[in-house]
């Protein structure tokens, strides 16, 4: 597997929901995003190619994928910004290993609503998150 990470496996949507449920302040959620960013391994520079670099994000962001033998999709990525990298980690938690059909059947950003993260994002970060979500959906459509 290219660029393995713990998101979707060791760190699940349920474990994130439980962790974020304890946070009442946006600052606590912000700190948790930074911690999640630190848990996402840096992408090998050889994988940071122009064809997986996303536009529409405040910071440089890369999102790659590979089809798994199970029919699911392994997503991997990186960002130069800590918060964006944390947002990417949350997105990976929600979509990692799912089939294209499962990804297309649910909003890839639903977990962000469960964690109460979307409402506090700046407009530029919200745009970047939308670009990430769109990239995941485009990949799922391409593979379905």
From TrEMBL:
<dbReference type="InterPro" id="IPR017763">
    <property type="entry name" value="Cysteine_desulfurase_CsdE"/>
</dbReference>
<protein>
    <submittedName>
        <fullName>Cysteine desulfurase sulfur acceptor subunit CsdE</fullName>
        <ecNumber>2.8.1.7</ecNumber>
    </submittedName>
</protein>
<dbReference type="InterPro" id="IPR003808">
    <property type="entry name" value="Fe-S_metab-assoc_dom"/>
</dbReference>
<dbReference type="GO" id="GO:0031071">
    <property type="term" value="F:cysteine desulfurase activity"/>
</dbReference>
<feature type="domain" description="Fe-S metabolism associated">
    <location>
        <begin position="18"/>
        <end position="136"/>
    </location>
</feature>
<keyword id="KW-0808">Transferase</keyword>
<comment type="similarity">
    <text>Belongs to the SufE family.</text>
</comment>
<dbReference type="Pfam" id="PF02657">
    <property type="entry name" value="SufE"/>
</dbReference>
<feature type="active site" description="Cysteine persulfide intermediate">
    <location>
        <position position="57"/>
    </location>
</feature>
